[in-house]
Amino acid sequence: MPVVPMQQILKHAFENRYGVGAFNIVDGITMDAVLTAAAETRSPVIVQVSVKTVKVMGAKLIRLMFHEMAGRVSVPATLHLDHCPDRAVIDECLAAGWNSVLFDGSKLSYEENMVQTRSVVEAAHAYGAAVEGELEAVKGVEDGVGDEYGGPIVALDKAVAFIRQTGIDSFAPAIGTAHGLYKGTPKINFKRVEEILAEEPIPLVVHGGTGLSEETFRRLIKSGAPKVNISTQLKITYADSFRNYLAEKPTEYDPLKLIGAVKKALVAEVSSFMRFFESEGKAA
Ligand code: 13P
Question: Mutate which of 231, 266, 269 to test ligand 1's pocket (most atoms within 8 Å of Cβ)?
Answer without folding.
Answer: 231
